[in-house]
């Protein structure tokens, strides 16, 4: 039954890819289309109020500066509100200001679409902060990522310009995130996710004890949390909390919400490239890697923890520590894989408690960071690997490599090398650094090899802008707030700016006509080479540390 | 090298100040739209259309007093009632979460073996190999309202002995309160412990 559920969800996803990808294409191709009638007027109003008179194409530098300056303004606003929340309205539970390093970490975490949470929503944030800072940054960070991805796609598929950041940014809100979020919110409320401004409830239980139940505007955050691949929960327990995710049905809706947009982007890319097979090639590479890693997690979690088996109880349900009964193994395992593939980072079961082999799946997906990936970034990263694959093939046969009819030369490869190398660097170097200091080591809550995985996971999650955690790690202190804050910043902006530069550079090149000798990038062979490139680079970089963490724990567990 | 795109933007120069002012204004509009209008509009719609769900799916007892939410588990300590899952936060729902014990964590292994030892004393009629793992383990949220049907069934001999309700009646009660998979496909079969215990108390009161 578990496998049937998983296949059903994947089938629904496959059915959504084409219509959504087409819609995304029309939203961003800027050709006149039917959706203009609904949204065109609102967008004109927003541009007018914003004082944006002209929306001409931008150079890559202008695009990057617009993207960065908007992000800086939003993050400054968020910082102020969190520091002042005690005196602001909509604070029925009387919550005070957030500590300085924690505020720094939190605003960076949300503007970078990471949503690593070192605070606990119930006790750390007022309802106003949950709405005006957390929910708002969930929209704007997702829209920023999507805009950059669209600009990158325009650049490599021979568009006239990269487009206009402000136009893409506003359209992402009006045509995609706001309408979808409202729809998903209402569906979630119908399925029992709360949406209220009342303070924490106090009830007298069936046994007559007092129970306080934290509540709030949960559904409106929950929907954009997944649609924007953000992942930061209203409550500390995230999507394992019954108010955030009350039933298997809401679980399916949340998984599809975070998965459908990243999965549709390759199709949109195919439309921009005027060759749908290009898009399906990229999509297939992602899906094959996804299914491989999902299988590993599902197998390991179903098999369970041998140390518990030895105690002689009925373990037919699999590894249930840190999981919810309503989800069981199938819905938990699929959620773990989707949330780390799509770099959402919401969790419906605690990744810290998973079996050692099961833990490899979320770790590997964050280390690869290109299997579907977060809003836009996953597609950019996968295309980056596609260009690398073309380059490697070119080296082997001794031809100048081309991608979509444009020569790949030294400048592009240098930028891509930076983007590919920065990711392992900001995971492995801080992990090593943390083990060298007492501050880092002191936060580890699980002894032995598992402790290494805890630290590694925290940085992999920060670098991939995922935001899930091995939550046992005591990470709310100045050391971890600063370290992960920096890793999140570097992980988000360096590769995005480098890839905008690649797009700008490819845009300037004369197209090379396709000949019989051109290496094709829209067939099964290329998809295979692409998967190979991703796995070889990923394994060369990260295998040693995976052996030291989860594999060593697996071998010693009995 | 001159970039064609830079030429486009250079045709109509915008001063730096005006550009920055636009960035700030656009950000302000989106802050209001996404951070204030959207959540408040969602709240208004939810409260008008679906007040029961929007306010936490609260359950009332016979006297009309709210005794909890059907979604949030409670800490049952009376051995004559069905127990829920292990919760390191004892179902204190002002917060949520668990200890996040890794699979090799000695504290977790000790907690589990202690639980099993105590279980043997309290439930001498049920062999340990029938004790389902969900009853022994900590849920992710610490607030899991459900247990598996098997975890309810293994508690029947104990509850029947303490309350005098015949075990066949209890078996039927568990069966009635077993919720199937969503749409017959998604998730797992489960029993809501709070609802089951409410029904059990009504039964024993008769």
UniProtKB/TrEMBL annotation, chain A:
GO terms for molecular function: P-type potassium transmembrane transporter activity; potassium ion binding. InterPro entries: KdpA. It is found in: Cell membrane. The keyword Ion transport applies. It is a multi-pass membrane protein. Keywords: Cell membrane, Ion transport, Membrane, Potassium, Potassium transport, Transmembrane, Transmembrane helix, Transport. It holds the Pfam family KdpA. It comes from the Bacteria. The chain crosses the membrane at residues 6-28, 63-82, 127-153, 174-193, 252-272, 279-300, 376-395, 415-436, 486-507, 528-552. One of its GO terms (cellular component) is plasma membrane. Coiled coil: none annotated. Its main location: membrane. Belongs to the KdpA family. The system is composed of three essential subunits: KdpA, KdpB and KdpC. PANTHER family: POTASSIUM-TRANSPORTING ATPASE A CHAIN, POTASSIUM-TRANSPORTING ATPASE POTASSIUM-BINDING SUBUNIT. Part of the high-affinity ATP-driven potassium transport (or Kdp) system, which catalyzes the hydrolysis of ATP coupled with the electrogenic transport of potassium into the cytoplasm. This subunit binds the extracellular potassium ions and delivers the ions to the membrane domain of KdpB through an intramembrane tunnel. This is Potassium-transporting ATPase potassium-binding subunit. It comes from Fontibacillus phaseoli. The gene is kdpA.
TrEMBL record, chain B:
The chain crosses the membrane at residues 20-41. It is a single-pass membrane protein. One of its GO terms (cellular component) is plasma membrane. It comes from the Bacteria. One of its GO terms (molecular function) is ATP binding. HAMAP family: KdpC (MF_00276). This is Potassium-transporting ATPase KdpC subunit. It comes from Fontibacillus phaseoli.
């Amino acid at each position: 039954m578990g496998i049937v559920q998983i296949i059903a969800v994947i089938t629904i996803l496959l059915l959504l890819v084409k219509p959504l990808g087409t819609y995304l294409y029309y939203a961003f191709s800027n050709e006149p289309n039917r959706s203009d009638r609904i949204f065109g007027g609102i967008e004109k109003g927003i541009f007018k109020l914003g004082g944006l008179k002209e929306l001409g194409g931008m150079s890559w530098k202008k695009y990057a500066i617009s993207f960065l300056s908007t992000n800086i303004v939003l993050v400054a606003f968020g910082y102020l509100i969190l520091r002042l929340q005690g005196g602001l309205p909509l604070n029925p539970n009387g919550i005070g200001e957030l500590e300085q390093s924690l505020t720094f970490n939190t605003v960076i975490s949300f503007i970078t679409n990471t949503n690593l949470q070192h605070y606990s929503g119930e006790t750390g944030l007022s309802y106003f902060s949950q709405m005006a800072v957390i929910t708002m940054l969930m929209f704007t960070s997702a829209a920023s990522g999507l805009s950059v991805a669209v600009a990158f796609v325009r650049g490599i598929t021979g568009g006239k310009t990269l487009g206009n950041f402000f136009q893409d940014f506003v359209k992402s809100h009006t045509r995609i995130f706001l309408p979808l979020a409202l729809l998903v919110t209402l569906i979630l409320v119908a399925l029992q996710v709360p949406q209220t401004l009342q303070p924490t409830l106090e009830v007298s239980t069936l046994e007559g004890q007092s129970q306080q139940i934290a509540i709030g505007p949960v559904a409106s955050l929950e929907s954009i949390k997944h649609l924007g691949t953000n992942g930061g929960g209203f409550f500390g327990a995230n999507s394992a909390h019954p108010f955030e995710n009350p039933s298997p049905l809401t679980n399916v809706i949340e998984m599809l919400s975070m998965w459908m947009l990243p999965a549709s982007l390759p199709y949109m890319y195919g439309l921009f490239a005027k060759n749908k097979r290009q898009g399906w090639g990229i999509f297939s590479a992602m899906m094959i890697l996804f299914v491989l890693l999902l299988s590993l997690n599902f197998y390991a979690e179903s098999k369970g923890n041998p140390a518990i088996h030895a105690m002689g109880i009925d373990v037919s349900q699999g590894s249930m520590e840190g999981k919810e009964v309503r989800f069981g193994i199938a819905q938990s395992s699929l959620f773990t894989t989707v949330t780390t593939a799509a770099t959402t980072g919401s969790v419906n079961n605690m990744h810290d408690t998973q079996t050692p082999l099961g833990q490899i799946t979320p770790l590997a997906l964050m280390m690869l960071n290109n299997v579907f990936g977060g809003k836009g970034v996953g597609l950019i990263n996968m295309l980056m690997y596609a260009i690398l694959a073309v380059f490697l093939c070119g080296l082997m046969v001794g031809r100048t490599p081309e991608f979509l009819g444009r020569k790949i030369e030294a400048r592009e490869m240098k930028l891509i090398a930076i983007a590919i190398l920065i990711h392992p660097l900001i995971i492995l170097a801080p992990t090593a650094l943390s083990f060298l200091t007492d501050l880092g080591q002191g936060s580890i809550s699980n002894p032995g090899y598992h402790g290494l995985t805890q630290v590694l996971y925290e940085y992999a999650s920060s670098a991939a802008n995922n935001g899930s955690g091995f939550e046992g790690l005591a990470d709310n202190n100045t050391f971890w707030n600063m370290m992960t804050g920096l890793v999140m910043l570097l992980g988000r902006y360096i590769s995005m700016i480098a890839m905008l530069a690649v797009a700008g550079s490819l845009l300037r090149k004369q197209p090379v006509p396709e000949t019989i000798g051109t290496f094709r990038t829209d067939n099964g062979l290329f998809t295979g080479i692409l998967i190979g490139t991703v796995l070889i680079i990923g394994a060369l970089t990260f295998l040693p540390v995976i052996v030291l963490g989860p594999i060593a724990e697996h071998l010693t567990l009995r | 090298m001159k970039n064609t795109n830079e030429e486009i933007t250079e045709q109509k120069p915008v001063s730096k100040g005006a550009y920055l002012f636009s960035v700030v204004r656009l950000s302000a509009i989106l802050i209001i739209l996404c951070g204030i209008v959207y959540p408040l509009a969602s709240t208004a719609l939810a409260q008008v259309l679906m007040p029961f769900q929007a306010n936490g799916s609260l359950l009332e007892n016979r006297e009309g007093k709210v005794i909890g939410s059907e979604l949030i588990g409670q800490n049952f300590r009376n051995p004559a009632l069905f127990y829920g899952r292990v919760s390191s936060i004892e179902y204190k729902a002002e917060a949520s979460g668990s200890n996040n014990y890794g699979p090799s964590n000695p504290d977790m292994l000790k907690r589990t073996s202690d639980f099993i030892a105590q279980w043997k004393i309290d439930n001498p009629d049920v062999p340990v190999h029938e004790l389902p793992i969900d009853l022994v383990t900590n849920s992710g949220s610490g607030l899991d309202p459900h247990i598996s049907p098997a975890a309810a069934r293994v508690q029947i001999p104990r509850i029947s002995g303490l309350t005098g309700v015949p075990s066949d009646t209890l078996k039927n009660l568990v069966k009635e309160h077993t919720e199937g998979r969503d749409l017959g496909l998604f998730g797992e079969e489960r029993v809501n412990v709070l609802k089951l215990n409410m029904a059990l108390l009504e039964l024993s009161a008769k």
